[in-house]
Amino acid sequence: MGKWQKVAIILVPLVAIAFVIGLVLRPTRTELVQAPAAPDLNTDLWQVENIEDAETLLVRRASEQRRVKLCGITPTGTDSTQAVTELIGSSGEVAIAFLGKQPDKTWVGEVWVNPATEGEELLNGLLILAGVAEVNRSEWMSCPNHLALQDAEELAGLE
């Protein structure tokens, strides 16, 4: 056996071991390969700063501001913003479960009024009950509480 063959027999396993050790010890960037997370359905408390229309609110928490579209509803009249104002109440505090973000950077979510009490209620459904909104058939099934929206519609006699 020649000199180079002996070197190759010793060198090949050493290179293979070094390669495996390099793979094991290298830092991995798992955030690049993880699947996108499911919507965070935990609610956060937010302060309503502006009611743009019956389905869109401008909310703030600390220094963060978001525009939120209420999931699964469409306003039916021009007096809708007054109903939203009355349902939110003077505290202006709401709880929001964000479901995702639209291309125009508007968040879609379910909004609850009276979050500090046991009487918290889904604003999306209350607007249907008040007769100022109706179920948006093209998106209502994507709302986690779509059955509540359907029930509100039946109670309001809109179905």
Describe the structure.
Helices cover 31% and strands 30% of the residues. The protein has 159 residues and is of the alpha+beta class. α3 packs parallel to α4. A hairpin with a 2-residue loop joins β2 and β3. A 5-stranded mixed β-barrel has the order 1-2-3-6-5. The protein has a two-stranded antiparallel sheet with strand order 4-8. It folds into 2 domains: 30 residues; 112 residues, OB fold (Dihydrolipoamide Acetyltransferase, E2P) (Beta Barrel), CATH 2.40.50.
Keywords:
two-stranded antiparallel ribbon; 8 strands; OB fold (Dihydrolipoamide Acetyltransferase, E2P); 159 residues; 2 domains; alpha+beta
Q: Concise description?
A:
The chain is of the alpha+beta class. 31% of the residues lie in helices and 30% in strands. It has helices spanning 3-25, 80-88, 123-129, 146-155; strands at 44-53, 56-61, 64-70, 73-75, 93-101, 107-113, 121-122, 133-135.
Secondary structure tally, helices: 4
Average of the residue pLDDT scores: 81
Radius of gyration: 27 Å
Q: What is the H-and-E element order?
A: HEEEEHEEEHEH
Name the structural class. Answer: alpha+beta
Gross CATH architecture of the largest domain? Beta Barrel
Strand order of the largest sheet: 1-2-3-6-5
The end-to-end span amounts to 90 Å
Helix content: 25-40%
Low-confidence stretches are 29-37
Number-wise, the strands total 8
CATH structural class of the largest domain: Mainly Beta
Q: What would you call the shape? A: elongated
Measured by DSSP, the beta-strand proportion falls in 25-35%
Largest sheet: 5 strands, mixed, barrel
CATH topology of the largest domain: OB fold (Dihydrolipoamide Acetyltransferase, E2P)
Number of domains as seen in the coordinates? 2
